[in-house]
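Example 204, ligand MD3.
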Amino acid sequence: NTVQIAPEAFLLKGFLLGQSEALLQSLSNVIAANPLRHMATPNGYQMSAAMTNCGEWGWVSDEKGYRYSRRDPVTNELWQPMPIPFVQLAISAASTAGFDHFIPDACLINRYAVSAAMSLHQDKDEANFTQPIVSFSLGLPATFDFGGATRDAPKVAVYLEHGDVLVWGGQSRLNYHGVRRIKPGVHPLLGPYRYNLTFRRSQP
Ligand code: MD3
Ligand code: FE
């Protein structure tokens, strides 16, 4: 059940549903080793989503800026390797959307409580824009705004539910995007939260 939402951008509706048990077990292992935390932004705010990472590289933010780091600044240890179910599902989602040879080296985990959001931005901290991005949605639903190449370009609203996967690359790789405020609710497996796992290639 693949829906194209923009050039080289696809929604794979319910793609994770058969695998959610393995996925949630792996997710809880990662979070136990590298706790979710609210990172500071360079302009003195805090991200409303709590974040952690797994994989060779992790995305971090602090008063000095955004960057990819091999170590968790909270534990000072390397991030956990990406769990096998994460890697397998990310590669297979990319390939389903027509992107072969996707090799992610970074997985950012975002946890949104009710009322959390992510304002419109571009993902441009990676040194490789040739590979796609794959994102898994779990828990509470969200409305995602998929924009264009400039901040004021028209946006498409995409409703993301537990088990959905977004894959985009090529000419949509640098599009603006954001997540609207999470509405109150309780998910039967994940409680009052939405989790998003974003797989990227951060290094050349
Ligand atoms: C479309 N996360 O962590 S993932 C992020 O749901 C981020 O947590 C959102 O944006 C979330 O940076 C959205 C889907 C996504 C990510 C990057 C994109 C869609 C995108 C880049 C270009 C176009
Ligand atoms: Fe983003």
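Summary: The longest strand covers residues 106-113.
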